Amino acid sequence: MADEQKPEAAGGGQEKPVVPQAAKPVAAAPAAPAKPAGPTPQPWDSEMVTRLKARFGAAIREASTYLGQNYLVVDPASILEICGVLCDEEQFNMLADLTAADYPKKPERFEVIYQLYSFPRNERLRVKAPTAEKIASVVDIWKAANWLEREAYDMFGVIFEGHPDLRRILLPEEWQGFPLRKDHHILQQDDQWVRENLGIESGQ
């Protein structure tokens, strides 16, 4: 039987080579929208602020409100007098909290922060006092400051002058350094204390 003839491809029996098409340029992703500006502190004016500024002058460095929270920034040298007036005359009779913040690059490295509450006024107030390292104790104004100042001393090393018993409250007395300072290496200190006092290697 004769071989069957296969039909030849059109155009002389040869397929045309496929020419690759140039890749289409990828459109650049649209730029992310700019973040909206966040809230900023606003000047705080009130009758109490007017009284305090009239009495203490430049010792009231700032009176502002932020997200509905009123605060004062005061000269640390006047903290005892200002807190005394806030407690006795302005009726902020409760020290709800006292802590500190560490800003190593600032001349006044620490900021001692007092969270006050007035039961008669049903009002809160934050007082901030920048200091290099020492500030007067307010234990004689609010007894609760006793333990809170000891904690701030224990964690930050802030000295509260006039405190009746300023010593560590969370860490052992032989602990070296202050854990909440930005330059404190907590794991290294833990290794050293555990080795020296427990005679073992730390599990950190």
Give a description of the structure.
This protein has 204 residues and is α/β, with parallel strands linked by helices. It folds into two domains: 42-170, NADH:ubiquinone oxidoreductase Nqo5 subunit (Beta Polymerase, domain 2), CATH 3.30.460; 172-204, no CATH class. The protein is 22% helix and 24% strand. The chain has four helices and eight strands. The strands form two sheets. The protein has a six-stranded mixed β-sheet. Strand 7 (134-136), helix 3 and strand 8 form a beta-alpha-beta unit. The protein is flat. It starts with 41 loop residues before the first strand and ends in a 6-residue tail after the last helix. 19% of the residues are buried. The mean pLDDT is 88.
List the helices and strands and how they pair.
Blueprint: E1 42-43, H1 47-56, E2 60-66, E3 69-74, H2 79-88, E4 94-102, E5 110-118, E6 123-131, E7 134-136, H3 145-156, E8 159-161, H4 186-198
Parallel strand pairs: 3-6, 7-8
Antiparallel strand pairs: 1-2, 2-3, 4-5, 5-6
What's this model, at a glance?
This protein is α/β, with parallel strands linked by helices.
How would you sum up the global shape?
flat
Mean pLDDT: 88
**Which oligomeric form is depicted?**
single chain
Question: What is the number of independent domains?
Answer: 2
Strand order of the largest sheet: 1-2-3-6-5-4
Q: In angstroms, what is the radius of gyration? A: 34 Å
**Biggest sheet layout:** 6 strands, mixed
User: How many strands?
Assistant: 8
Q: Could you tell me how far the N terminus lies from the C terminus, measured between alpha carbons in angstroms?
A: 90 Å
Percent in helix: 10-25%
